[in-house]
Design brief:
By secondary structure, this protein is α/β, with parallel strands linked by helices. Helices cover 34% and strands 29% of the residues. It folds into two domains: 268 residues, Zn peptidases (Aminopeptidase, 3-Layer(aba) Sandwich); 113 residues, Alpha-Beta Plaits (2-Layer Sandwich).
């Protein structure tokens, strides 16, 4: 058995125990006090240099190899979601209304186990490792920026400068045993948009005396569906979803205002620019035609995650060596899900890979962000082994 896989198997009870502890005690973005404290304590117990409070609640561990070489950042997100858990698992959330519904508890546990393995093998490393335990991947949670940008602002890619990054996601859209390492784009960039329409309120029985912002909002929702269908090349993915509409207070009142908002997902910069331009044109022209004033905001939430070809090729080779009997996919498997790791990979070449974690026979195949989300914990072994071996292979002397 491959030594990294063997060690991951030996440490599985530790990884599982850590994952279940984090799952029972989930914390929202920028509130990962308990989680970050445990991470710091576990790293310090290994003799790894630890810096706390990077990006507010983030933790960075620095492992120096015995030979000179590049510095690789391994990133693991820690935050949970504002969801009431409905799994019935023995390790269910004890924090009401908060749940690890995306697998970040597993990612954090994987990161701590990888630290154990690489710390034991630091004499083999021609370079250094930064273990980056990141807060608030799921959103800004009231801050101006999210976890990746917050840690970057605090210098996580500097001192020493990071040369490459590795990151992963346990993936419940695919079964246990599936591993995906691709070159190029893998996750979409995300933008949010919000629109406030101001008309002229009045009595519902006298619409001719009003300017109805609800009718205007309805026209906008319908019209922007044509952007992807008629303005974007069919082979270039894009999504525009209106996800919120708020207006009105009573059945007999035409309101003064209506507000709507949603998300844009794209991979290509030119496509993104075109979507923004058409969205603004449709919203402003429709509002003008309907007699409404309009306030429009379009804001970037994350950059697309685009894997460097060289780093991805190295990780793919590591995966093939690690799992010789598994077909490691490398086709352009794209997801419109977004990840703020894209910001780091804009600055430093890296690879973001996926490890299948679903098991339909055990009813562990609910989608991410579902109240019943849970994954087959055997995926933790694969995640640990691949992250540790991929990092070690990149730092071979």
């Amino acid at each position: 058995m491959n030594p990294f896989l063997k060690k991951a198997e030996e440490l599985f009870p530790y990884t599982q125990a850590m994952r279940r502890d984090f799952h029972k005690h989930p914390e929202l973005g920028f509130n990962e006090i308990r989680t970050g404290g445990i991470v710091a304590k576990e790293l310090e117990a290994l003799g790894i240099e630890v810096t706390k409070g990077v990006g507010k609640t983030g933790v960075v561990g620095y492992l120096e190899g015995t030979k000179p070489g590049p510095t690789i950042l391994l990133r693991f997100d820690m935050d949970a979601l504002p969801i009431a858990e409905d799994t019935g698992a023995e390790y269910s959330s004890e924090n009401a209304g908060v749940m690890h519904a995306c697998g970040h508890d597993g990612h954090t546990a994987i990161g701590l186990t990888v630290a154990k393995i690489l710390n034991e093998r630091k004499h083999e490393l021609a370079g250094n490792i930064k273990f980056c335990f990141q807060p608030s991947e799921e959103g800004t949670n009231g801050e101006e920026i999210g976890g990746a940008l917050m840690m970057m602002r605090d210098g996580v890619l500097e001192g020493p400068n990071v040369d490459k990054t590795l990151s992963l996601h346990l993936w419940n859209d695919k079964p246990l045993g599936w591993v995906h390492v691709a070159k190029g784009p893998v996750m979409a960039g995300a933008d949010l948009f919000s629109v406030k329409l101001t008309g002229k309120g009045g009595h519902g029985a006298a619409p001719e005396t009003t300017i109805d912002p609800i009718v205007c909002a309805a026209q906008i929702v319908t019209a922007i569906q044509s952007i992807v269908a008629r303005n974007i090349e069919p082979l270039k993915p894009a999504v525009i979803s209106v996800t919120t509409i708020h207006s009105g207070t009573a059945f007999n009142i035409i309101p003064q205002t209506a507000e709507l908002g949603g998300t844009i997902r794209t991979f290509d910069l030119d496509v993104r620019k075109l979507v923004h331009a058409r969205l603004e044109q449709i919203i402003r022209s429709t509002a003008a035609a309907m007699g409404c004033e309009v306030e429009l905001l379009i804001k970037q939430v994350t950059a697309p995650v685009i894997n460097n070809e060289g780093v991805a090729a190295s990780v793919f080779e590591s995966a093939q060596t690690l799992f010789p009997d598994t077909e490691i996919t490398s086709n352009q498997y794209l997801t419109m899900g977004a990840e703020d790791m894209g910001y780091m990979q804009e600055k430093v070449e890296g690879c973001y890979f996926f490890v299948g974690s679903a098991n339909a026979e055990k009813n562990l195949n609910y989608n991410h962000h579902h109240p019943k989300f849970d994954f087959d914990e055997r995926a933790l072994v694969s995640g640990v082994a691949l992250m540790a071996s991929a990092a070690a292979d990149l730092l071979k002397g």
